[in-house]
Design brief:
Elements lengths: L5 E10 L3 E11 L4 E5 L6 H9 L7 E10 L2 E2 L5 H7 L1 E4 L11 H8 L6 H14 L1 H5 L10 H13 L5 E5 L7 H16 L3 E6 L2 H7 L2 E6 L2 E7 H5 L2 H6 L22 H4 L8 E10 L2 E11 L4 E5 L6 H9 L6 E6 L2 E2 L5 H6 L2 E3 L12 H9 L7 H5 L3 H20 L15 H14 L4 E5 L7 H18 L2 E5 L3 H7 L2 E6 L2 E6 L1 H5 L2 H8 L5
Length: 526
């Protein structure tokens, strides 16, 4: 066999000199190949990429055993910048782009290590050839791109350095099926152009389709490996990662067992009310993100807002939460008109939300992040808290107890003492939902609640959301691309495409609507 491009031998990694994230991990990437690493939430996949790209120190991680060789050279004494110059470039999970820079400026940052002007020009041409949508919007700010376009930009920025090995961390995260298919095709094109790829993926179907070889990583150790086609045919992979095995978890129609909800949350000061969105239009300069969108979320129901990437879903959620202003149209929650209110006033009405791009305090613990959600409900002022007066200490103890029980609802109680930066993406999504629940909302806005979770994990999250909704009688409006998750959870669904409502109805009606199938799967597939 030819010498491998990358070898990882018996690798061990720990965080904070205590938490063992990887142990005895070995794999190889041959030149001109695509290798996929599959695994459930928290398995250590992102840690593996951080170790290879030498970026562990930024999150208090360190290699404690084993070795990594690239082109035969040991990487032990290299730093992240040297890795880029050597030809290893990582695309982090979660669309890490510069939101206030334009597309072209983001790409220029990616090519800053390339000194040769001709090479930079060739890299620009390559990126715009792979991603025509970026060429069309080269002057647009990154924050105004759709989720799919932001992922393309993150990949394009990495390609500007002309890497020999591209490390891709969850490139399909939070993308609609049609966009996932497109990202998979682009990875195959990148491979065909001579770039080797190490791919971390929750979407096992896409990962196994584009990869030559695959490894399964569970709880920090490799549990299976082999040619992708052979792994895809095994019952374990089909059941756990593809959701098509005989023992795939099934959602129950209702949660009959009562759950241990914190006493404060069991007696909300307000009841859920009807949410009415009427002729909502939002424009950013010359771009119309939403056009005359109307729908109603009945009190105490779970309503889904779905559509392909760029349809306007997150824009709508941002208007409802007060982050964006409507160009025209109105939104009412009960008798209150919220379209003219600032976000803190909307929160005061009982509206809480999670975010598509996770917005947590990364250096703070999970417990402290959840306490932020309780801040609006706490009575001790800043001075009392700073002076640690008895009343403030008593209130803090009570709020921490409430936070612990919220964490138990979402199965993150074991993580309360961990700093958020050390968590997997899926666990961060649970923390963000917990922070929203801590505010005791009557309307909960969830933006991509199961992004970064494997099939079984999204099923468990659906059960948790349903249990919380039934016990607290909340209204929930959720945006999500995981269609089995949506169809098994939502009572009513509104579908957007290119900023317009194209369908609305029960899950059964929406699943059979030809316009919905066309928007999600493309004309031929529909």
């Amino acid at each position: 066999m030819p010498d491998p491009l990358l070898t990882v031998d018996d690798l061990a990694v720990a965080y904070d000199s205590a938490v063992q994230a990887l142990r005895g991990v070995s794999l190889r990437v041959d030149s001109g190949s695509v290798v996929a690493v599959l695994g459930s939430n928290g398995a250590g996949k992102t840690t593996l990429l951080r170790a290879i790209s030498r970026s562990l120190h930024s999150v208090n991680g360190a290699v404690t055993g084993g070795s990594i060789h690239f082109e035969g050279r040991n990487l032990a004494q290299r730093d992240a910048s040297q890795m880029v110059r050597a030809g290893i470039v990582q695309v982090p999970e979660g669309r890490r782009i510069f939101r206030d820079l334009t597309v072209e400026e983001n790409l220029r940052v990616g090519g800053c290590t390339v000194r040769d002007k001709r090479a930079r020009k060739e890299a620009y041409d390559r990126v715009f050839d792979l991603f025509p949508a970026l060429a069309e919007r080269r002057d647009a700010r990154g924050g105004l791109l759709s989720g799919g376009q932001q992922q393309m930009l993150a990949m394009g920025r990495a390609l500007m350095a002309s890497p020999k090995l591209l490390l891709l961390d969850e490139p399909s995260l939070g993308l609609a099926p049609q966009m996932v298919e497109q990202i998979g095709d682009i990875i195959e094109q990148i491979h065909a152009q001579g770039t080797s790829v190490l791919l971390i993926e929750q979407n096992a179907a896409m990962g196994l389709r584009v990869a030559d070889h695959a490894y399964v990583l569970e709880v920090g150790a490799i549990t299976a490996s082999g040619p992708s086609a052979e792994l895809a045919a095994t019952d374990e992979i089909r059941d756990r990662y593809l959701g098509v095995g005989s023992t795939s978890p099934q959602r129950t129609a209702a949660v009959k067992e009562p759950i241990d909800v914190p006493v404060h949350l069991q007696r909300p000061s307000r009841k859920a009310q009807q949410l009415r969105v009427e002729d909502l239009t939002v424009r950013f300069g010359g771009l119309t993100a939403l056009s005359n969108v109307s729908f109603t979320v009945e009190a105490g129901t779970i309503h889904a807002l779905i559509g392909p990437n760029g349809a306007g879903k997150s824009t709508c959620i941002n208007v409802l939460g007060g982050a964006y202003r409507a160009t025209s149209g109105t939104v009412h929650y009960g008798d209150s008109k919220v379209t003219a209110l600032p976000s803190h006033r909307i929160a005061g009405l009982g509206v809480a939300r999670s975010f598509q791009n996770i917005s947590l305090s990364l250096e703070a613990t999970v417990e402290d992040n959840l306490l932020v959600g309780r801040h609006r409900l706490m009575h001790a002022g800043t001075v009392m808290q700073a002076l640690r007066l008895p009343r403030a200490r008593k209130e803090e103890r009570a709020e921490r107890e409430t936070v612990h029980r919220i964490a138990a609802l979402l199965d993150i109680e074991r993580l309360l003492g961990h700093e958020v930066h050390a968590l997997s993406y899926g666990d961060r999504k649970r923390v963000e939902m917990g922070r929203a629940l801590a505010a005791e909302p009557t309307l909960l806005l969830l933006d991509e609640p199961v992004a970064g979770m494997a099939h079984g994990e999204s099923m468990a999250m659906a059960d948790a959301i349903r249990a919380v909704q039934q016990e607290l009688r909340l209204s929930i409006l959720l945006v999500e691309h995981d269609m089995p998750f949506v169809m098994g959870l939502a009572e009513r669904i509104t579908v957007l495409d290119f900023g317009k409502r194209i369908a609305e109805g029960s899950p059964q009606d929406v699943q059979q609507d030809p316009e919905v199938l066309r928007a999600y799967l493309g004309t031929a597939a529909a």
